[in-house]
Amino acid sequence: MLISKDEYRNRFDRVGNWAAKEDFDLLLVYTRGNRNMYGNLLYLTGYYSFDPCIEGALLVPRLADPYLMLNFEWDLDRAALTSWLPRQSMGYTRAIDEGLVNYCREHGITSGKIGIVGENYLPVTLYQKLQTGLPGVRFVHATHIVEQERLLKSENELTAMREAARITNRAIMAGIEAFQEGVSELDIFSVCVRTMLENQADEIAFTAQVSFGKNTEVCMAPASQNRLRSGDMVLFDIGCLYEHYLGDLSRTVMFGKPTSEQQHIYDVVVTAQNAAIAAVRPGVTAGSIDQVAREIISQAGYGECFNHWLGRGEGLDLHERPFIEKGDKMLLQPGMVFSIEPGIYLPGVGGARLEETVVVTQDGSEIISEPSWIPFCS
Predict the structure, then answer these.
(1) pTM higher than 0.90 for the full model?
(2) Is the CATH number of domain 5-150 3.40.350.10?
């Protein structure tokens, strides 16, 4: 394993120090077995649940040892196997709301301040039960404490992300090699998925996009029975997980000879991406990088056809900070990792998007994905 139990424990200790500085009596790290809902718990412990039935919380009291509470017993042994937490520091209750209230009462946390990590997906009903059961407690947003630690990637994290990107790139190349007239998007999608899994991916990271022709005219479209024809633009947006870390790439190729307009929008996207990557360096704002690419696309006359952010942070989650979008004032720092993925989606012509993953370095940036340099005309 690239990320050792000691590294997970060190992360936990750093977050615990932050929580103490903010005077929390308890830090409650909420989790569910869904992508983008278990990243904080995984980051701090090494454990996550892929089962959507699982719900729980890591409880970090100021004056006691941490405790993992889940709503089903069956995942506790796996949690003990994968995390640094001892098995005796875990338990389950079918009613998480009652379990959390009882835990706080038993540990004397009936007043003071509880910080909630994951408040943006904590169910309203659970929050209401906590407020009702612990009327003397003040509940405070605390996700920023973990997000701040997750912003800057360690060398081990970067190694995992490089490998995830390499596997994803290999899958796209296998998909392109399988092109022939009449194959469906799902046919190529299955080639890509099989290639990722055969190359030691943990799992696919999201419902991937393989789009032909008219289906490339929108930003995202799931693979379907749509068949490949000469003159189609083809858009890939796929990703895998390796050691829990994301590798996500977009590539656009042509099946046959492109029209002059198809070639033009592709070339504009290449220019916008190169300029944005060149602008990445410590101290500039995330929003300014988006502006670089957006101005190039707008000046080419396609501003309304670029209808999404330029990029977003990657790591354990598909979408995490920093967000490379208009107006975001976060200052870039060495160790931040995010995508650069400009796109143009033109009705009647087709769509082009290119995505690379970059890490901010001391004096600029480095592309940590594996650029495939696929010729546009395949």
Answers:
(1) yes
(2) yes
pLDDT tens for residues 25-66? 999 999 998 878 899 999 999 999 888 899 999 999 998 999
CB 7 within 8 A of CB 156: yes
Assign a CATH topology to domain 155-367. Creatine Amidinohydrolase (3.90.230)
User: Model confidence over 208-253: pLDDT tens digits?
Assistant: 899 999 999 999 999 999 999 999 999 999 999 999 999 999 999 9
Of residues 8, 20, 25, the one with CA closest to residue 150: 8
Task: Classify residue 114 by its DSSP letter.
Answer: E
Q: Are 59 and 28 in contact (CB under 8 A)?
A: yes
Residue of 245, 246, 224 lying closest to 235 (CA atoms): 224
> Alpha-carbon dihedral of residues 259, 184, 205, 235, nearest 10 degrees?
0
Rounded CA gap, 262 and 154, in Å?
40
Domain spans of the chain?
5-150, 155-367
